[in-house]
Amino acid sequence: MSKNKKLSLSGGDTAEKFIYKPKDLIWAKMKGFTPWPGMIVEPPLDLLAQQRRANTKCVFFFGSRNFAWIEENNIKPFEGPWKDELAKVSKPAAFRHAMTDIEKYIDDPAEVDEQINDSCGVPNHATEADFDKIRDGLDGEENAADEAATADGNNGVVPHVVGSPDEGDSVENNADSSASPSAAVTTTPAATGKSGGKRTPKAKSVSAVSVSKSAKASASKSAQKRRVSAHQTPSGASSAKRGRRVASGDVAGDDAAGSSPNARRRIETDALMATLAAKRAPNAIALLDRPVVTRPETQAIDMNSRSNTLADRDIVPSEQTFGFLGLGMMGSTIVKDLIYTGHKVVVWNRTIDKCQPFVEAGAEVKDTPMDVVEAADVIFCCVSDPKGAKDLVFGNCGVLQLKDLNNKAYVEMSTIDPETSTDIGEGIKQCNGRYLEAQIHGSRQEAADGMLIILAGGDRSVFEECHSCFKTIAKNTFFLGNVGNACKVNLILQTILGVSLVGLAEALALADRFSISLNDIIDIFDLTSMKSPLLLAKGKEMAKGDFNPQQPLSHMQRDLRLVLNMAENLDQSMPVTSITNEVFKHTKRLGYSEHDSSAVFVRSRF
């Protein structure tokens, strides 16, 4: 550690300034803490990702053995006239432990040095300058003189490559000053150290700013190139947001460096990230190592399979023609059952390929929803959300493009809110049509077995005309009166289901943390009065990690959102439902939108 005296740029007073190098023992002062014994080290990768002010050093704290960025004006050498004052034994036990730790390091540094190396997982890990070389595509043959000229041109600030973000890291804390820095500094899983045979550019003192123009003119072209690239991100964009100051002389030297025959090549971002990944330990930057969630495979409809429950029913098909808009997970299963029981069906779907199996089974395909309305007597609609339901009615080539529906019936089976159902019903009635909302409650397997529950509201005559269809797909049907009532009841039932699933997921996640067999929990649950066929089935799916969609998680979150909107209109407080909705939203963000709703267990577990 070298010392030089110079004038401070602020205030004009004379002050001592020090140039710190790695392995220098120092006193470091963090906000909210007393000065603490530490050591200048190369920063870990996670610490490089944090925003930091200019003129900061990475400090390793003894005792707590954590890392943090500390401004140089809050750092003093360990040895000096201030040591006796700062090392008073009247301080807390954590401080006394830190003093003992640094004294042991002075006597035998091997143990602490090994710990710093092991925290990165790589014995010969790279320095900041090495990562700069990777970023700028420098050869391993660049000499140390080029590195020194670069540091001089950048006022002693070495640009860093941003590693993996870690939002949990923090280097400041307003805790009581008697506390240990370990309460404020998050331990980093990976740290960078010195690379064998390579020099680390030294951070220059403030006096290094005043460099003469003649010295700049004599710098090599490679040094100029190095200075310019130091102010750029890997993609070539300006890094002004990181607080870098670009000197006018550096920018002017860009043209000269670009014309040099030895201009260094830029490597691609993918190659940079691959190099960084190869250098970090397996447990470093876990966020980047998180596996990618694959979408569940779309299961093709099996037109040859038959439900035993459905085969046992005595169903007499209606002579009317039934149109069906939407061949999604539920729609395709319902149409298959209608065709199997002898109903005449006309279908439409946005993706025409999904219609082919039904054509082969005897259904007729139309090009637009309007064409289906013209060909059918009763039109069913089953799409994924309220917006899609409205588009099919009011949109281009939609149902209401026919100004006169000639008393035809329109049955809305999509899960929608009461307001949307009312709007659709009014539109149908204005065009001389009849409207029925028929909310379906159940899973895909229940639809295949004909075990759904139908909640209907609206025109009673339409409900009677659809009797053979409802008998095909449902075990029970309920007519609940006016339009909107069925939607309300269905969403209330979905609220109970969503809250129950999150409770089950969190309970099983807790059991998993205790290393208790999830299958044992489910077996015991089956013996209690709380048992439910649905929760038992979902619990088994959670235990197996099998999230093959029976009811997509995105649909469950949609239903919870509709419930909260409905409650908001009534000023009804639903705090548990609101939290449940947030849990499902977070699970969607993790990539499980198209998996079964039981995938909420993943979020609860991790």
From TrEMBL:
Pfam families: NAD_binding_11, NAD_binding_2, PWWP
Domain PWWP intervals: 22-81
Chain positions covered by the region annotation Disordered: 144-265
Record localization: Chromosome
Gene Ontology MF annotations: DNA binding; NAD binding; NADP binding; nucleosome binding; oxidoreductase activity
Predominant location: nucleus
CDD domains: PWWP_GLYR1 (cd05836)
GO cellular component annotations of the record: chromatin
Species this protein is from: Drosophila ananassae
UniProt subunit comment: Binds to mononucleosomes. Interacts with male-specific lethal (MSL) histone acetyltransferase complex at least composed of mof, msl-1, msl-2 and msl-3.
Name recorded for this polypeptide: Cytokine-like nuclear factor N-PAC
